[in-house]
Amino acid sequence: MKLSAQTDASGASTREDAPASRRALLLQRLWSAFGRGPALVAVIILALVTLMALLAPLLATADPIAIAPAERLSGASAIHPLGTDAYGRDIYSRVLYGARVSLLVGAGAALVSVAIGLVIGVVAGYFRAIDTVIMRTMDGIMAIPSILLAIALISLTGASLLTVLVAITVPEIPRVVRLVRSVILNVRSEAYVEAAVTLGSPVRRILMRHMVPNTVAPLIVQGTFVFASAILTEATLSFLGAGLPTEIPSWGNIMSEGRAYFQLYPGLVLWPGIALALTLLSVNVLGDVLRDMLDPKMAKRT
Amino acid sequence: MTETTVPFRNPVIRVRDLTVSLTQGGSRPVVQNVGFDIGPGETLCVVGESGSGKSVTAFSIMGLLQANALQPTGGEILLEREDLLRAQPERLRQLRSTRMSMIFQEPMTALNPVEKVGRQIEEVLLLHSRANAAERRRLTLEMLETVHLPDPERIYESYPHQLSGGQRQRVVICMALILEPELLIADEPTTALDVTTQQQILTLIREMQERQNTAVLFITHDMGVVADIADRVVVMKDGRIVEIADKETILRSPAQDYTRMLISSVPSLVPEPRAPLRTETVLSVEGLCKTFRKKRFLRPVAEVQAVTDVHLTLRRNEILGVVGQSGSGKSTVARCIVGLEEPSAGTISICGERLDRAGTAARRQMRRRIQMVFQDPYRSLNPRVKIGRSLIEGPTNFGIPAETALKRAGELMELVGLPKGVLDRYPHQFSGGQRQRICIARALMLEPAVLVADEAVSALDVSVQEQVLELLNEIRTETSVGIVFITHDLRVAARICDSIFVMNDGRIVEYGPAERVLARPEEAYTQKLFEAAPGRHWDFRNFCPV
């Protein structure tokens, strides 16, 4: 009796860890997840692409939209390290500026779809009365192929960076909503949420303190996948000619224009293609590593 | 204490100095120098609190340790002279089911949900015997008959979800024993079952053991079960054997303090006489009904009558027990009282005021007088919120400044036996018993008139359970709160309750003072429940038979 009373009362002091060491623990976990192997390569590639995008005006050797008919389809030279396209525009500079569009669209779509999806998902998960209406609407949006939906939205408004971003974001929202709703539905029946109800906590506090924090980890993971898929969709739309106009260089429309000369000048498609493939691969690797770190249940067994 | 005399010339299994360690380092072994023998036809009970290493020992014998987490690092396990720790995986596969088998706590997860149970039993024969299809079917049906399952043909064609918990456990036993292994390991096989079902399963295991002369290694945390079925007992703590002796010795005159503490923590089934309370009524429930409706597509609405016409009154200072098996509606009653479910009919009054007649604002104020303590201490505190903030959540909801509430929280922490300074810690830094104390403190922050405790000690080890029960007892004398105490455990009810309501199928079967209901139950159902309570012939507190 005495023995276990002691352990019960003194147990708390044996398990001390201050918030400072929690932060250290998080850093340690981040390092062990990203500090080696493919994850490290992915982080480096993404850092380089981000630098390319940020420093594009400094790194560029020419104006990416300046047409120079005299220099059309020239090979590699000091001013044009990767040659020029059919209008004499510098491929290297266009690929640099293309990184800006891709990252902007990816980050924008990820942030906006996660933000909107979080709100709708929480509402659907917590207020059961309107759940059916919301979820069937989401099913409806999901039933339309996302490229088709994006093309339709762009054709209604005309192509600009904003409309392309909206067109790419809308089809991503339902997936986020489903994810958030399922988390909220799971947490609803947790005893600590019921305890908050019996303590008389208002709905806002129950949601913000007890339920929404549970969605953060899965949303970070989902966000990275939206990021990758948005970059891909933008490139696809631009490649199909439904996306950004050629005044805004994007990897998709550079490839689209280079397509006709592919057999003679493969670099026109290859360079933006390599940039796109490496970026997508890196984002996806990062997403996988994040998921393994944040959701131990999904992690591969070693 | 690891070496003991060998009571059998030819034990079925002999464990010697077994040590199991964490694969990835770890300060000390999970199981250390454990040794015991089990003879044919003998039942050896392994008892201990959670984390004592009893399941790890069983899994080591079966060769079921997850190699990436736990590894045996020393000793030997001899199954009739063959060392299992050094056997090849292929050999272990042959031995399982044929020479040794295991049954688990949760029969639903031990069965494949998408295959008929008949085929699952046959699979054992398919893998380990030469019987042809017709023989396999005949043997399976015979075995289903042997474990007293009604209508074996129908059971054979059933899926696990179509059977009750007790029937599923019978199927699992059927699977484990169809090849007549010499050793049966039972890991808490009745913990997830109701008492009446538990009794039937224990009887079945005993019967099968006698028929096949099986050695049984029975893992349990329940001293009542030990008193009913054990021949010899191993007491474990922190991965070591504390004491090993025959049942009589352990129960009558345990040699070790720990064993003595463990046994004397088991509450008696006979309540102490208590003076009837004459205090005023704080909670009265009249004609409470709850029907759950489930809308189904293109089919009529499905209705389940969970609670029918329940009346109860709770006085200030009183602890009122609501006792029943799972599905009896006792939790639904609790949830209706605290407002987590809306009753379908009936009224609930607090301190004489009816809840349903109050306006929204008044109702919120009344609700605050009823607080709840939940079953699972690991899930009833938000893991992301420091316990100080958890404690003041209630008061701040009702406009009390955070500083005032924090001061009160500090006082309450002392009342529940925890130091004041722990308020800025997170829940994971506390043990289960401590968390339950914190939950009780949180409920008391709103100065309730009624505290509803739904199975509040069921998830705790006996010694901790005893402390929490004592705490509840102190709290009702100090704060004069009335407590509705929901439990399936008659011993716990006898230990703490003043009066007892027995529920079955959503109705109240019997009620009265605890002494009367438990000592002289009038209704057949209550008597049946009482008969099934494990170890009812033994008075654990006084180390003697009743």
Counting DSSP H or I runs of 4 or more residues, the number of helices of chain A is 13
Strand percentage of chain A = under 5%
- Total DSSP E strands of chain B: 22
What does the largest sheet of chain A look like?
none
Helix amount of chain B, in percent? 25-40%
- Spatial separation of the terminal alpha carbons of chain A: 42 Å
Helix count of chain B equals 20
Number of strands of chain A: 0
The 3D shape of chain B can be described as globular
Shape of chain A: elongated
One letter per element, helices H and strands E, the order of chain A comes to HHHHHHHHHHHHH
Computed structural class of chain B: alpha/beta
* End-to-end gap of chain B: 30 Å
Unreliable spans of chain B:
1-5
Task: Write up what this structure looks like.
The complex is a heterodimer of chains A (302) and B (546). In chain A, 73% of the residues lie in helices and 0% in strands. Chain A has 302 residues and is mostly helical. In chain A, helix 2 packs across helix 13 (267-294) and helix 3 crosses helix 5 (91-126). Chain A is elongated and about 80 Å long. Chain B is α/β, with parallel strands linked by helices and 546 residues long. In chain B, a hairpin with a 2-residue loop joins strand 14 and strand 15 (353-354). Chain B is globular. The interface between A and B is large, with 31 and 46 residues.
List the helices and strands and how they pair.
The complex is a heterodimer of chains A (302) and B (546).
Chain A: H1 2-14, H2 19-34, H3 37-54, H4 56-59, H5 91-126, H6 128-143, H7 146-157, H8 161-188, H9 191-198, H10 203-211, H11 216-240, H12 251-258, H13 267-294
Helix pairs in contact in A: 2-13, 3-5, 3-13, 5-6, 5-8, 5-11, 5-13, 6-8, 7-8, 8-11, 9-10, 11-12, 11-13, 12-13
Chain B: E1 13-22, E2 31-38, E3 43-47, H1 54-62, E4 70-79, E5 82-83, H2 89-98, E6 100-103, H3 107-110, H4 117-128, H5 133-146, H6 152-156, H7 165-177, E7 183-187, H8 195-212, E8 215-220, H9 223-229, E9 232-237, E10 240-246, H10 247-252, H11 257-264, E11 281-296, E12 299-315, E13 319-323, H12 330-338, E14 345-350, E15 353-354, H13 360-367, E16 370-373, H14 387-397, H15 402-415, H16 432-444, E17 450-454, H17 462-479, E18 482-487, H18 490-496, E19 499-504, E20 507-513, H19 514-519, H20 524-532, E21 538-539, E22 544-545
Parallel strand pairs in B: 3-8, 3-9, 6-7, 7-8, 13-18, 13-19, 16-17, 17-18
Antiparallel strand pairs in B: 1-2, 1-4, 4-5, 9-10, 11-12, 11-14, 14-15, 19-20, 21-22
Helix pairs in contact in B: 4-5, 4-7, 7-8, 8-20, 14-15, 14-16, 15-16, 16-17
